[in-house]
Amino acid sequence: MSSSIRPAVAGLVTVVLALALALAGLQPTPAAAAVAEPVWTQTTIETPDGITLLTDVLHPADMPAEAGPRPVLLIVSPYLGDEGGTDWSKRFTDFYYGTYDGQGLFANGWSVVQVHTRGTSGSTGCLDILGLGEQTDIVTAVEWVDDQPWADGIAMYGKSYDANTGAAALANRPRGLDAVIAQAIGPDRYRATHNDRVRLLQSLAYPATYRVSGEANMSTSSDPEYALNALTHTAYCSPDEVNHFRDDETIPFWTIRDFPERAKGATIPTFITAGYLDNATNIGGGALDLFNALEGPKHLWIGWWDHVRGNDTIGTCDQYTEDCTFAMGRDSWFAETTAFLERHVKGTPLAELPDYPDYAVAAQTSDGTWRSEDSLPAADTIRTDMALRGGVYVDNGTGRGSNDSGLGAGGLVSTGSLTDGVWTFGQPVTTRTQLAGIPVATMLIDPTLPRANVVVNLYDVDGAGRATMITRGAGMVDTEGEEVIRMWPTDWVLEPGHRLAVRVSDANTENYIHVPTNAEVQVVSGRVELPMLPGARVSDLAGEPAPRLLSYQQRAPFDVSSQLVAQTLSSFLR
Q: No. of H helices and E strands in the chain?
């Protein structure tokens, strides 16, 4: 079923920066101490549709394959270029060596398998970006590992793209999969690139950047078969790529990539992270929907960070010997995920796992505190309506939602208007008031021309008239009628004297690609359904504010005039 094409023993492993983290100025936390390097071999896996998948197998130095069964961590990814043919990809060595209090996976009897998806590095076929072909790769990879005599339990691990391969596995339910850890996911691929026909900026990168990443690290020292496969990928793989730019979410290209819908009822234990300020994998891309679709043991870290891993730190530090500033605000990623793997892959009793998370959701609020929830939205959520005023705006594609340009793809600088549009301001709150969940705007819209852009922004406005965007949503309208915009999830506390505001306008140029009609759009009437908690929650989990939250709160606010507030007051309706 497989054939060895290049055995090698890895050199001393140094934890290196993944490209995305280097660009973000973030560092995976280094391990506490050096551990024995694994023995690396490469093999190939054949898929049912005839694709050959290059595969790295990493066994502990003291546990060769013939030593018997052991648990396996599986990575299925397009980002596993083999370091110019001389070494295996170090994309997740931070996790391999950071678990078990810095002893690492290999020292604790785990093997690792890294499978290169079709159309990337030394695998044959066309880059499929989570389509049916790549889903075949994922299922084949899991079941190949399950068939190996040295495998006893399988967990998938990843961040961003290779977190979405975990989401695809949940949708396809391959034999032998025991657990999934998925960070920074956008598991509904349509909503990860579009809001109701309005494209997000990061979607411009698809699929070209994936192809470049998939062919990275090929060199003259690479295996000849690896080099041949890498060089020929782009010659015949372009026709289907145009579908990434089609905005009809009902076409099969998108429905087969809707993993929250297809994973409904899955019972595979899953650990997810999602950031409200993630400019590469937007929070509206279905992470919360996937979490709520699952029926097995599940855990979620959700809060005010960007495109980071659970163990990422700001600057270089060693979490085992000194204090670190963690990008998500918590220092327990390795401890909790190690316990999660022990429980669901190795079957270790809970009584022996003091670090196993005793919550479903670890939620970070806008004040930087952490709390546990049994679900999100919480069971005691109160749905409160805020009536919207009518008015007219011009769809000229110049508006923006926030002063924080970091909300765009790569921090795109936007200079459009912050105040144009149809505003509605609520009355100041008298007590600490918390929203947590997904606001939904329902409006009667009358556009002058079809394909008119409609953007809804929700703001916290303080007593000095400084507005901070809480969340947003976008859509497109062709004719007069009702438009429903499901905004992105949020978790925000309004302090006494602050008020909510809603702005309906033409654009958020820092985050979306708008094709304006340059015509008027009338908001006839509307309301926003707000997920309110009965009172502001009290923190019951350890954790600090995510550094990205602090920078957002400093950079995002902008001034709204007292005259505008006075002219556009509304009321809450129960």
A: 12, 29
